[in-house]
Amino acid sequence: TRDLTFDIGQLLPKSESGNAQKHFDIDTLEVWGVGGDGIVRQALGARSQQRDIVAANIRKARKVDKAAFLDDFQSGLIESKAFSHRDQARGRGDVALEERHKKGYEYEK
Fold first, then answer.
1. Cβ contacts of 98 within 8 Å, gap of 6 or more
2. Which pLDDT band, with edges at 50, 70 and 90, does 48 fall under?
3. Which one of 24, 25, 98, 108 has the largest count of C-beta atoms within 10 Å of its C-beta?
């Protein structure tokens, strides 16, 4: 992977002669310490665990409870014309609700 902290190119501007600068004065130097190999391994392990948790949550969010999704369609919670035929059939003389199936219809011809 590439470090995206800085843009690609020269760190220092070219000198007046057009050549790349090789010497410069340091105004401030900031040094960070991470605590040794054990701390680094621990931090990398924690980062890996966090990434696994995030990946598991993404996989879980991608899974759809198909029965609940179908119920949402049938109830009208999700606007769709997929089950509009049921509303159109209700009240017609040749359609009778079949109690043993609760949601099914029986057509009499």
1. 104, 105, 106
2. very high
3. 98
